[in-house]
Amino acid sequence: MSAHSHEHEVPESGGRLAVVILLNFIITIAEVIGGIISGSLSLLSDALHNFSDGIAVIIAWIAIRLDARPRSEKHTFGLKRAQVLAAVINAGALVAISVYLFVEAWHRFNDPHPIGGVVMTTVAAIGLVANVLGTWLLHRGSKQNMNLKAAYLHLFSDAISSIGVILGGLAITFWDIYWIDPVLTVLIGLYVLKESLQILGRSLGIFMLATPDGLSLNEVRDAASAVPGVEGIHHLHLWEVAENDIHFEAHIEVVDQPLHETETIRHAIEQTLHDRFEITHVTLQIEPVDGECSTSQLA
What we know:
By secondary structure, this protein is mainly alpha-helical. It has helices spanning 14-38, 41-67, 82-110, 117-142, 146-175, 180-207, 217-225, 263-277, and strands spanning 232-242, 245-254, 281-288. It folds into 2 domains: 14-207, Cation efflux protein transmembrane domain (Alpha-lytic protease prodomain-like); 217-288, Alpha-Beta Plaits (2-Layer Sandwich).
């Protein structure tokens, strides 16, 4: 059968990603130094986030380049799942970081000590500016790309955490509220954990060939069955090869007729599934109603 062909464009330029990577490593160095001087756990946790941001964007960039490579005899689907794999790695790293922050915050609750609020606030403010700029650079691509969304969430969570660290630094500077440092660390960790688990679940679902989120196999079956000339449908499969690359295959029963006369039915099914469900690749095997296979049409 003929498939709906589509090219996967690189959603972000290498220049933007390079700027984001550089920004995050500069912030990391500044916040590590500031965290050691001030004794702030939340600032050090923000530094760890920023370091993971830089690594996340590097992984995202590598995955985008792999995704853009053409198909080959060895990789007949291309390397589309490189971006899904990158999303799994980045989201998994965020989960691990969140757990680490919870443990460190618990230790700080049990063993509080004075924190340099002025240094903490100043360094966090610098980090906030850089994180907002990096978030802005990745925002557009994150809307259509799960891989970049994972990297974007790294940056967005750091921007939020920088605001929290700034507020915490002010509270420590003016009111000596030192317990706010581990509290902020826990809140940042909870937010990051929630977002990363969602991405992790979606990307693992793609690897496990799950029916795409928001699609019902029964609705897809009914839509294909409603096409004039379709007498029955069975052996259905609906899955994603990669994000926004949805595949569907099925055996379609029609009244016994010459093969060329089934083309209208086949094209109608393809168009219906593409228009209603954004299914990009449809593979149909046409069979006469008596069950004898008349032909097999592959994508």
